[in-house]
Design a protein that fits this description.
The chain is rod-shaped. The protein is α+β, with helices and mostly antiparallel strands and 157 residues long. It has 2 helices and 5 strands. 46% of the residues lie in helices and 18% in strands.
């Protein structure tokens, strides 16, 4: 009779495990998803901060033409995405899936068209997760006062 009682208890343990696993597995996967998304957001925030700091000290050349402003924006986008203003052909982004098209660079100009601040932000970047996709639009963002050299008459080499 003792042997039969043990077999019945063994069956109970399997049922308890199945019920507990049915609750714990989604909780563990949700925790992983939240952690991964938070980790990726922190990487994006760090990249945006580095890009805006780089932009705040770079020389701004406005009267030389729109190509110089375009070069400025491209260099800031590259700094944000790759960690260098002029990446090589095999450069790897600091966050997987991030590209320069996801980075927006805006200048705050005074009434005399002199830059006073620069804002770098992430636009339309999607993280593919276990339970869904999360799209960051407009954040993370970082605004820094412009402390670089204003040289409107120069052209970039």
């Amino acid at each position: 009779m003792r042997l039969d009682a043990r077999r019945r208890q063994g069956g109970n343990a399997i049922i308890e495990f199945a019920l507990a696993a049915g609750l714990l597995l989604p909780v563990m996967l949700g925790t992983f998803q939240f952690g991964y998304t938070f980790y990726t957001y922190n990487l994006l925030q760090s990249a945006v901060a580095h890009g805006s700091r780089y932009a705040a000290y770079r020389t701004y050349r406005s009267l030389a033409g729109q190509t110089d402003i375009g070069k400025f924006r491209t260099a800031v986008q590259n700094m944000t995405v790759f960690g260098t203003p002029s990446p090589g052909a095999n450069a790897v982004p600091v966050v997987r899936g991030l590209s320069t098209s996801n980075i927006q660079v805006n200048f705050t100009l005074s009434s005399t068209q002199i830059p006073t601040a620069v804002t770098v932000r992430v636009q339309n970047f999607t993280i593919n997760g276990i339970f869904g996709r999360y799209t960051f639009t407009g954040y993370p963002t970082c605004t820094m006062p412009y402390l670089g050299r204003y040289a409107p008459e120069e052209s970039e080499p």
